[in-house]
Amino acid sequence: MAVLNVKTVPDKLYRKLQARAKRERRSVAQEVIHILDQALTEPPPLSILNLQGLGKEIWRDVNSDQYIEAERRSWD
């Protein structure tokens, strides 16, 4: 496993990091790894088909990329 050293962290930022780590019951190092992992993990693509409520059956067979592009062209 790699080792990462971070130098000259501003005191105010480090105190915030310590407080967050304490709230999450992690060490500062564990919290830094958690924050980096969250920041660098690609979120799953969103789909209108996953929306809750009315109307999703209308969109089931619609290519949303093509629909949006056509809508944008209609504005010109």
Largest sheet: none
Query: What's the tally of helices?
Result: 4
Oligomer: single chain
Radius of gyration: 22 Å
The number of distinct β-strands equals 0
* Shape descriptor: elongated
> Helicity range of the residues?
40-55%
Distance between the termini: 53 Å
Overall SS class: mainly alpha
Set out the fold topology.
Blueprint: H1 11-23, H2 28-40, H3 56-59, H4 64-74
Quick recap:
The protein is 54% helix and 0% strand. By secondary structure, the protein is mainly alpha-helical. The longest helix is centred in the first third of the chain and has 13 residues.
Give a verbal description of the structure.
It is a single chain. With 76 residues, the protein is mainly α. The protein has a domain at 11-40. The protein is built from four helices and no strands. Helix 1 packs across helix 2. The mean pLDDT is 89.
Based on the model shown, name its key terms:
mainly alpha, elongated
